[in-house]
Amino acid sequence: MKRYTLERLEPLLHSVQKPASYIGGEVNAVVKEKADVRMAVSYPDLYEIGMSNNGIRILYEAVNSLPYAACERVFSPAADFEGALRGAGLKLFTLETLTPLSELNLLGINAAHELLYSNILQLIDLGGIPLLRKDRGDGDPIVLIGGQAVSNPLPLFDFADAFFIGDGEEGLKEVASVIARGKKNAASRSELIKIIGKLDGILIPDDYISGHEGASPVKKRVYRSNELSDPERPIVPNIRISQDRAVVEVTRGCWNLCKFCHSGYYDLPYRAYDEDRVLSRVLKVLQNTGYSDLTLSSLSLSDYRPLTGLLPRLLPILNERGVSISLPSLKVDMGTLPLIELVSDVRKTSLTFAVESASETMRSISNKKVLEEDLLNIIRHVSGKGWKRIKFYFMLGLPGCNETDEAEDVIVLLKKVQYAGRKRLEINVTLSPFVPKPHTPFQWEPQMDADYFNDAVLRIKRGLPRSIKIKNHDVNSTILEGVLARGDEKLGAVIYKSYLDGCRMDSWHEHFRYSLWEKNLNELLPEWKSYTAARNPEKPLPWSIVDTGFGRLVGAWRERCADLQKLKDRAELPQEAPVAAESPETDPLAGKYEAVTTLRLRLSKTGRAKFIPHIDQIEIIKRSLRRSGIPAAFTRGFNRHEKVDLSFPVPIGVESLAEICDVQLYAIPDDGFKDRFAETLPEGIGLVAAEFIPGRESVMGITAAFGYTVECLTDDAALALRAGIDSRPALIKETKKESKEVQFDDAVLDFSFPSEMKLEMTTRAATGNAVRADSLVLQLAGFEQSRVSEFRIVKTAQYKEKADGALEII
Predict the structure, then answer these.
(1) Rounded CA gap, 210 and 212, in Å?
(2) Mean pLDDT of 179-199
(3) Phi and psi angles of residue 237, each rounded to the nearest 5 degrees, phi first
(4) C-alpha to C-alpha distance for 338 and 422, rounded to whole angstroms
(5) pLDDT tens column, 82-126
(6) What band does 578 get if pLDDT is binned at 50, 70 and 90?
(7) Antiparallel, parallel or unpaired: β 106-110 and 37-42
(8) CA distances in angstroms from 716 to 9, 112, 475, 756, 791, listed in the order given
(9) Each residue of 251-302: pLDDT tens digit?
(10) Which residue among 36, 245, 374, 504 is buried most deeply as judged by most CB within 10 Å?
(11) In Å, what is the CA distance from 495 to each residue of 7, 118, 131, 712, 769?
(12) Start-end of H helices in 130-243
């Protein structure tokens, strides 16, 4: 099996904006050098989005629990890295072993939503796999696509060898087992696909390609175990991701049955996990990751009945550790106030209300049980309790919108909200055009057109004061989402052509190119607007080849509406909702603010870790402090965090043997803290030394100079660098605000050539004459940035200046 080496990839990594997205080496990553089956799972978006997807974590853990199987990861590259790969003639590869995707046995892709389709083609294509399944043969990986969007798999028929319908943690292990046995028996690729097709939850496009009159629908796979699927040791990224926190799933499915909610119906049945198991998993995940933030994941967390028992047990532990908690998807009703009160002492961030529609009639049609008076009572309550920010989500174009003025309804409601909050609250509003998704009671309804959505958004923005911040999802992307969600296999040609025309990252506003999609839809599928039109309930739908197990329920709820009058007829509620038990008056972090000593750490940063940015390295250190139990002191205030002082940033791509980091401690750690701390660091970051120092001097404040070793990796680089040193040219110092000229002797304090291929130098730090090490070397050699990989630059020492002017190693 062919693999790349880090050295082979370095020229590419030096040329892109976020090289740490492509190198792996994270804490808790699983690397298996040998395996009978090697596969990759992918969420087809940028690393920072894909690594936030809990489904990827779950599948990764499940397959890697098999001794004979290796499950690796790959994500969609940004445009600069795609260009670098193509320019170098290289294929997209996995993070764990740098294996090109074409060398795998299987590529599993999570199609979580329809605007990821062009990224799916990018993964396949860049990985060296034929884009069209009809062009693949023995030696090519099997492309298996799952996720919520394949509740209607037809638009992707041209590209997937097989689809996984439903929950995958058990089924993907079965797929790996089939491949392992097939390889042992020398089965062909087509034979393997046929055998995989016999597994529960697997849909093979060939069975339906010429019409599905004789083929039975594939029943969605449902995970029914009481055991939590979340891994105890999830991968901890080395860079910031969009959801940079610990996540533990407490429920799947939802019993509210809001008729617009695809997840609510497609994830049925509703399953809730045991309180004790959730608590145990939370504590293990926090210990094994070092995260300072936690999310309890659920489609409707308020409906998790054990929550009121779980939180009083969990919150004191989180408070003591300085860990904040996020409770997403709370219902808008008075019953949520006790939950809000419980978490209000941890961190008052923001509250989110998914009202969906400002019209009571439309909420009733959608089975959304929200009362306006409940909402306003909650706003009054939280405003008086010190909350500063609230978020609202509204859908535009829900069924019933033609019978009411929904733009005016939104304006009126938000003005009432602002008044109820006494104008103390920051109000942020997101407007989302509605897509009637498959397998929901609204699957027969039409999607409103772009003119309707644009008019409603414009009127809402004009009708509200600027103090209420309004943002909206891109209307054209929503129209495309509706077409892809409700279409059939004829869309494959449109997806293929749009990808070839350059469509990528369609869920990112700055990358979305609707003009290309519209052109291809008009040319290749002139009837495309019929996909968003109303459907006849008496005729089969394209996605009926998928059986969710709840089709009768969906049909039964098509005409049903919520009886909001029953909610209004409740016994009168008190103005103040019942509040949870009083929080202790003592600060749970009391005793952890005042430092008794300072621990100075000297760290190395080599190999792939040299591509980790400075700001992310600080977070890595904080997480390692938490995991190893080192008693780091906390700052006071709203955003409490550990008192960690890391010295000047080393440029990305430059290695270091002398990263100095001071940590203030509220207590003296035990003797084993060094070994524990070293064990928690990711690949490439090591503990060189640790010592207690008197006082609290600023590392940046005392640093006067750096020592570097520059190893030339080509003869041209060695000759050019020596010539540059000999000529002592003026250098250019670049900052965000300006560039200025710096004399060589002001920037370089000392240098020597211990060999023909090596330079040792001491450079100025922390003054106007300091020049970045990589920039300095390139300027001396007269090289462009693209040739930086011809040097290995290593920071070897950090110096402070003594009273007599001499330099002393820190």
Answers:
(1) 7
(2) 96
(3) -60, 150
(4) 22
(5) 999 999 999 999 999 999 999 999 999 999 999 999 999 999 999
(6) very low
(7) parallel
(8) 20, 49, 54, 11, 11
(9) 999 989 999 999 999 999 999 999 999 999 999 999 999 999 999 999 999 8
(10) 374
(11) 36, 7, 11, 47, 53
(12) 171-184, 189-196
Q: Which residues pair with 389 in a beta bridge?
A: 350, 426
DSSP-based three-state secondary structure for 799: strand
CA–CA gap between residue 474 and residue 62 (Å, rounded): 36
157-182 average pLDDT score: 97
Among residues 34, 57, 39, which one has the least CA distance to residue 176?
A: 39
Whether residue 782 contacts residue 720, with contact meaning beta carbons closer than 8 Å, is answered with yes
Question: Do the Cβ atoms of 348 and 388 come closer than 8 Å?
Answer: yes
pLDDT tens-digit readout, 701-752: 999 999 999 999 999 999 999 999 999 999 999 887 888 999 999 999 999 9
Name every residue whose Cβ is closer than 8 Å to that of residue 324 and which is 6 or more positions away in sequence: 292, 293, 294, 318, 346, 347, 349
Which residue reads 């409707």 in tokens?
300
Cβ neighbours around 110 below 10 Å, total? 25
Q: Are 406 and 358 in contact (CB under 8 A)?
A: yes
Tokens 């790996």 sit on residue: 176
pLDDT per residue over 621-642, tens digit each? 999 999 999 999 999 876 788 9
Is the previous residue joined to 269 through a cis bond, with omega within 30 degrees of 0? yes
Q: 227 by DSSP, 3-state: which?
A: coil
- Round to whole Å and give the CA distance between 19 and 16: 6
Reported pTM: 0.94
CB 146 within 8 A of CB 184: no
> Is 751:768 a contact under the CB 8 Å cutoff?
no
Distances (CA, A) of 741 to 193, 746, 765: 64, 11, 16
Give the integer Cα–Cα distance in Å for 502 and 519.
13
Scored b (16 or more CB within 10 A) or e, 640-677 reads bebbbbbbbebbbbbbbbbbbbbbbbbeebeeebbeeb
Grade residue 381 by pLDDT with cuts at 50, 70 and 90: confident
Q: Bridge-partner residues for 395, per DSSP?
A: 432
The closest alpha carbon to 341, from 81, 61, 123, 581, belongs to: 581
326-335, 518-527, 573-582: range with highest mean pLDDT: 518-527
